Structures are given as C-alpha cells and as structure tokens.
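quick one
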Amino acid sequence: MTEISTEVIQATSYVAGTPIHASQVLEVHSPYDNRLVGTVTMASAEDTQNAIKQALENKVSLTRYERYQILDNVRKLLLERKEEFAQTICAEAGLAIREAHYETGRAHDVLFFAASECLKDDGQIFSCDISPQGKARKIFTQREPLNLAACITPFNHPLNQVLHKIAPALAAGTPVILKPSEKTPLSAVKITELFYEAGLPKSMLSVLLGKTADVAEALVKDPRIDIVSFTGSVAVGKRIASTAGYKKVILELGGNSPLIIMEDADMDKAVLLAAEGSFRNSGQRCTAVKRILVHEKIKDEFVTRFVEKAKEYNCGDPADPETKVGTVIDEAAATHLESVVQKAVAQGAKVLLGGKRTGALLEPTVIDDVPRDAEMIVKESFGPLAPILSFKDIDDAIALANATDFGLSSGIVTNNMAYAIRFIKELKTGTVNINEVPGYRIECSPFGGIKDSGLGIKEGVIEAIKCFSYVKTFSMPW
Ligand code: NAP
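structure w/ NAP:
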C-alpha cells in the first residue's frame, strides 16, 4: 500500500493488484514550491503486456449486487479519507485546497451514481407482433461487459476524471487498465488502492505510469483492448483516433466555452458566473469560461463590476484555506499563458487586472477589448484568463460563439425566453446552460462535446456505462 508520510508519498504502479517494484520512479513535485510530493514506480512495456494478460486470463463475472457493493464500499472509504485525498490533489496539482475538497465531493457523487446504476435494470423488450410483418415473438436486450478497457486521463481533475472512467467501467463489469497523467498520478494510485481495499477482484484493475511508448501507446494500439476512453488535449486525442485501429474510442477533448451575457441579464448573476467560470480550478476545467461575450449596451457596466468581483479571487499558497486560486499545473503552462496575454496586448487588448506570474502561480487576469482573432480567443488557454469581447445583437453573439474549432459547452445569462430558445437551438456545442456556467452538470447527466471537443459520444456515469458495454439482443417465441 502507498505509504503516506508528511514528507513524501511513495506510490507504485500496480499490475492487477501487484505493486511494481522498479528502479525507475516518476517524481511528482508541487507546482507551488517545487517540493517533492511523491514518487511512483514506472511500469515497463513488459508490465503493460502483463496487465493485459492478467485482465484477460483472470476474468471475473460479478453480480450486479457485487458491483454495487464494491462501488459503494469505495464511496464509504473515500468519505472516511476525503481530507487525505484533498491534500494529495492540492499537493500534486497545485489546486487550491477548497477546490480539492470540492473535487472529492464530486468524486463521491460519481461513485454514488455508478453504484446506484448497478441496481437498475437496463434491458428493453420489443414485442414483434406490431406490424403487418410481425410475429408472435419478443426481442429482449441486455448489456454485456467488454473484454478490457484502457482509460487515459488528464491532470486537471486528478481524482474525478479517473473515477469518471473506472467507476462506470466497473459498474458495467468491464476490467480497466488505467493510465493517469504523469503530472498528477498520486490521487489515481490512491483511488486504485481503495478499489482493492473495497473488495474489487484485483485482475479487474491495473494502474500504470510509464513512458508513453511503453504504456499509453501500447494500450491504444493493442487489438485485445476493446475500448480506449481518453480525456485530454485535442492533439493527443486526434493521435489516438489515428492509431487505435478497430476498437471503440471515446474522446473528451479541449474546450473554448463562451459565457454570453445579453443586455437584459441580471448583472449580479452575470458577474458572479463570469468569475466562477473563469477562475475556479485555476481556469483548468475543460468547460471553464474561456470567452466572455457581452452585449455592447451593458459592456461598460459589466467590465467595471467584473473587475471588482475578480479581485476577490486571490491567488497564492494552494494549501491555505483562504486561497481561492492555486497554481496552474506547472511553470511552463504559466509562462505560456503569460505569452498568450502579451500577444493579445500587442494586438490592442488591455489587461485590467492581474497578469503577474510567479513560477506556476498566475494571477486571475481580466483582459478587455480582445480582438476576435487573438490566440486566447481562437485556441484553448488552460488557465485563469478572462478575455472580454462585445457583440451587437443575438445574431452576432451566436456567430461569435460558434466561430471556434471547439464545441464543448456554453453558458447564457438572460431572462428572455426567446433568446434562450435561440441559443439552445443554434449553438453548435454539447451543452447550453441558461443562467449557469458552462461547466454546470451533475455527475450522472450526459456530458461531452462535438467538433474538436469530441466525437459527440457522451460520458457522465449513465452514458459512460453504455460506452463500456455492448447490447446483446435475444428473442423468444411469445
Ligand atoms: P494531454 O497532454 O493530452 O494528456 C492526457 C493524457 O494522455 C495523459 O495521461 C498523457 O500521459 C496521455 N498521453 C500523452 N501522449 C499520449 C499518446 N501519444 N497516446 C496516448 N496517451 C497519451 O492532456 P492534459 O494536458 O493532461 O489535460 C488538459 C487537456 O484535457 C485540456 O485540453 C482539457 O480541455 C482537456 N480536458 C477535457 C475534458 C473533457 O471532458 N472534454 C475534461 C478534462 C480535461 P502523460 O501525462 O504521461 O503525458
């Protein structure tokens, strides 16, 4: 088991519950002060092959109740240890401890919904005598597990992203090899250990950290793996799409979500949603507000109020409970974001607040008069940047919102029903939230994007269980 010390977490990769004792270790450093937070032993190409073999040769068929019990046990164990998990997320990702606490709450809900789904029947019945060609038969459906899933996760929600893959897969009865981000592997290893402790047959779950060619790419290309479920960047997602071959591929990729503020908006709400959407989780949510689009009639008032609100989002030591915004994932990411701001300024944008960087700590940054073709508008900038643009009417707002390669989510601030309906119908995106941030969801509702944000296949616990299983039909005379 992972040894927790006040100093350094010493973790291992696991092949079907067996810890890998390798000489090569991955070091995890705090993005805030660069201290060594933990180490994880690295898996080799041979370990990857072994994990696949173990999963396929030691197949376990669990009843629905057994799957429910295991997931519910993990849920209870997580509740007992939520502080330990929050501390780990905060230390390895640099996320503010208040965000880390929030993430453990979301992770709990994922387990709660996944466990609950195990108890629901998922079959359908089709009577066949309902057309002139009919017969006295019935067709029944049931879901069957897949042979093996490879789940590859990003750094930005180190615990919740992992659970959004492994909980639905295991609820479906499908074994998993998990490859978490090398930037935030400690929460992933710890939650894997919780599954073992909760009674999961060990062959059903491995967690491997290792070189991309030895682990991630080997899993993606292996024909024995039925599904690759990936969440991460567009570049890696498209590479996976081109190399995976004949298997199911689920891609949840980047975002560039707008918050659109109409002239009738409740200004208090608009200001709050813009700040929460832009700065929570250090702006590192795939559904974070990446473009604030404001009707030109109310823009000046919005900007004045928003700058005041943004000042409340203090950034600093992630471990301090008073800190609202921690670091971004590393200094390289912060430096990149700084350069994106400088490029926008060179194009005529104005920094109204923030913009200063110390290591991986980047102040929440409000930027006004950003040109529509600035890099921070066209591409995803994964950090606490809040660029503001104006539009003249709803047609302009819809055109501007849709003028992006991404299509993950959106938020609209309006009390005008006609506006709301037009946005719901005309925005080319996976989600439209009225009077909410683009990131609003519950853990079991369908979630996922289109265009470069994904293939339109939804996750969220209920849909993800469908991804990790297939439908078998059988029919009988009736
Ligand atoms: P990333 O660089 O694409 O990495 C994601 C995962 O892919 C990591 O585990 C990484 O491993 C692995 N990987 C790297 N190269 C690979 C390859 N050739 N084949 C297979 N796997 C490979 O993404 P990130 O920077 O961690 O995460 C941020 C991105 O994720 C943002 O774009 C964000 O919008 C997106 N995201 C999307 C959603 C959504 O639901 N749509 C949710 C959260 C985040 P290593 O760490 O070992 O390199």
